[in-house]
Amino acid sequence: MKALEIMVQPVVTIRRDTSLEEAARIMLNNRFGCLPVVDDSGRLCGIVTESDFAAKERGIPFSTLFLPQVLNEWIPLQGIERIYQAARTTPVSTIMGTDPASVSEETSVEEVVKQMLYRDINHVPVIRDGIPVGIISRHDLLRIMIADAESG
Predict the structure, then answer these.
(1) Which of 8, 52, 67, 127 is found 20 to 30 A from 109 (Cα to Cα)?
(2) Where is the CBS domain (predicted)?
(3) Beta-carbon count within 10 A of 35 CB
(4) Which residues does residue 19 pair with via DSSP β-bridges, in sequence order?
């Protein structure tokens, strides 16, 4: 089975200068777990995922201590609302992953799964000539199991 057979399309993309608020709105309204980020020519240059918006525990440089960070800012947990409000107009380029995994339409599902496991990711953009044409999530892989059960 190929990526083309299980990918969700058309894919909704955003640009580097899209605000975090707009990206969050698109993700929430469409129930997307990620959005591919494209450059001026429509080529994939990054990806924004739900986890990019979430608080993460990060090590303090030159220390053994860990503190929470959200949207790349160190925070006391009671300050999270203030940071989200202040970041509304911040461009997605500040938090996006800049080396996204991607596959072609002809990539085998086995290779897609390997990419997800190897890179510990939940979403893989499907590209044609560098331009996103679909997206595959771990959720989409469940369709293979259902399709096999219904046909067998």
Answers:
(1) 52
(2) 7-64, 96-151
(3) 29
(4) 91
Q: What is the pLDDT of residues 70-89, one digit of tens each?
A: 666 656 655 667 767 777 88
- Give phi and psi for 144, each to the nearest 5: -65, -45
Tokens of 30: 């469409």
- Containing 112, the helix (H) or strand (E) segment is helix 109-119
How many Cα atoms sit within 13 Å of 101 on the Cβ side? 20
Homologous superfamily, domain 3-151: CBS-domain (3.10.580.10)
Q: Which amino acid is at 90?
A: T
Determine how many CB atoms are found less than 10 A away from the CB of residue 94: 12
Q: pLDDT tens across 114-151, in order?
A: 999 999 999 999 999 999 999 999 989 887 877 666 66
Q: How many residues does the chain have?
A: 152
